[in-house]
Write a structure and sequence with these properties.
There is one protein chain. The protein contains six helices and eleven strands. The chain has about 210 residues and is α+β, with helices and mostly antiparallel strands.
Amino acid sequence: MISALPSRQTLKAAALAAAERGWRVFPLRPGSLTPAVPDWQRKATCDPERISNAWDHGPYNVAAVPCPSNLIILDLVPARPGERPPLRLRSAGIHDGADVLAELTESANARFPFEVFTVATPGGGMHLYFTHPPQGPCPQASTGTDSALGWHVAIRSAGTFVPLPGSVVADGAYEIAHDGLAGRWPAYLARHLSSGPTSKECAAGVLPAS
């Protein structure tokens, strides 16, 4: 159970701060990850007046839609209690999505993106924020916790949303772990996904603003 929800003012400030970054936001029901409005993809906005009006009605959690916000987000998912990785990963000492991304990064002789805007999730995972590829296909969003990048490395792109810092659920709060900028979408990730499915909702880049 959630002992106390953040105030309306605290959550409104979080929504306005995200909008200042150019991220399109919409409200989630208080203490949950359920959209509080229908047609949330279209209603997500950067307009401060609309945001203030929405959050004046209640302590809504805050979510952003990735592609219209010029974002792609990697969701590094922790293992659930008692969950073990696929057999092929165990010998490599991999325990969660962060380990999978670290191995993928190392194999590409690249650097783990420590500097990008990073959100710690209540379950012990991380959201890494990247700018949308300016050209070329948008990777298809994950329907669960995995993607073509690997076990427990999910992609949040077109048709999905991410809870933003300040949001609180039963397991805890979403908090800024590193307050940087969204990083450039890494070339080694794009290469790894080059033969994989792409988003039908965002096949050629960022969705038009509404």
